Structure formats: C-alpha cells, structure tokens
Amino acid sequence: MVSKCIKCGGEVKKDGKRYTENRGAIQRYKCKACSHRFIEKDAFYRMRNHPNKITLCLDLFFRGISTRKIQEHLQAFYPHNSSHKTIYKWIIRYSEQISNFTDKIKVNTGAEIQVDEVEFHRRKSHKASLGVAKNWLIDSIDVKTRYAVAIDFVEHRSKDEIRTVMHSIKRKSENVKVITTDGFMAYTNVVKKTFGYDKHTKSYKVKHNQVNASQGEGFNYPVERMHNNIRARTKVMRGFHGSVYSARTILKGMFVYYNFITKHQGINCTPASIATDLQLKADNKWLELINLSCR
Known about the structure:
6-stranded mixed β-sheet; 3 domains; 3-stranded antiparallel β-sheet; alpha/beta; Nucleotidyltransferase, domain 5
C-alpha cells in the first residue's frame, strides 16, 4: 500500500485499477495535492509478466528443470509465452536481488561451521573453441541447523578468496567456536587472523579443526552432502556457461533455494526456519522473499 506521492510526497488515494493483458489488475494511485497518477514501483515494476509466472520459473529452475524445458511448460499453460533467454534473465535478476537481502541476515548458528571448496568447470561461452575454465565454489555450513552461512564462486582458490568467506561467517554469526576444514594449508593462517587472538585466555578465539580424509581422518559429512546437492543440479546443466558473475549468481540462487525454500531431510524443515528470525509464511516463498528484498 502506497502512502505518499512519488512526485511531491503528498497524501494519496486509490484511483481505480489498470488492467493489463498478462499481469491482470494493477492498483493505480492519485495524489490529493498535485493530482499525479501513478502505480507502485514494486519488485515487478514494468515487468510484462505476472509475478506468479516469474516465480514459478525460478522454482522450476532450482528444482532441476532447464530454461528450455520451462519454456515448453509455459507454452502449455500460458497464452503469452516467454523465451528461455527471458527466463534466464529473471533467474539472474531475482537470484541476485534475494541473495543481497538474505546475505544481511544474522544467523543463529551452532558452535561448529564447516568450510570446504569444490571445483567446477565453466565454459567461457557456448562455443567450445573458447575453452573451459576451472573455478571454485567456497562454501560453509552450520552443522547444527544445516544453514549455508556464506558462499563464493571464484576463479582461483587462494587465501584472499577464503578470507572473504571467513569474514562473511564472522559478520553473520557470533556463536562460532570451531571452524572445520580439510587439510588445505591456506585455511590455517586465514582462520587465525580472521577471528583473532584472546590475550586473556592466551588462545585463539576460534579453534581450527582440520580433517584430512587422505590420512583416514574421515569426511566433513554435512558440507560434503551439500556439495552433492549442488552437483546433482549442475550435472543436468552440463556445468556453467558464460561469465563468473552469472555462475556465481546462479549458485547464490541455489543456496537461497537450499536455505529458505526446500525442506532439509535431516531436520525436516528449511534451515532458515531454525537458523534465522525470518519466518516465511506464504506458500509462494519466492514471491515473499522478492517482496521483502524490495523494502
């Protein structure tokens, strides 16, 4: 509900509805002071398709359906079809918008966070002649709530990239006592410097627990299971195509789906429902998240 005029800031009143072919009725407002008529600039302002249709495409994509298959699905149920390129643009736009909002949420984690990295191949273009790049997903998971705390998709696996993820973990959670990683040596100094040293206890504020699977020390199962979920989705995509930015944005959307949309079998609810204060009530959680990210 709009309360002020976008032109002069005066009081407004409802002034009928504007009817569109694909979005249906849209509320129109009129300023009592300057008589300016306008519609609300919400998350779907100037979009030519209904929010339910757009969020349907997001949900289908992150459940494992390709953009071309989604286009075929729309053609069977909607008179006004959308191209697979348009659907891809919706995915990139709203994945980034939602993740920018959810990335600012404080997380009530348990004491242990597992951090790991996994290699992904990215085709620089749909043309095979331009080659394939080896990039890395660096991600982290709270062992207690299964919430994916921080992620990044980068070209190289170095201290700088790992440090970015560690700082994000520190910013989001105040409960971290243990950081568990594999045997990659770059983690050691980054964990110590990121979380600091306590002069009173004469110890580091966060314990770094390294698990080396090659030496028979086991695996970090929560984060490895999350990797399997991501691999299952990217396998049908045949890897990533295009820029690092587009691959990173799609992965952010995957983690929004993982944290907020789908139930985790181990906890029988979404990780966000027990790790954050944000409780989504609508059946269409994508639409609710998009609207929240616009406030």
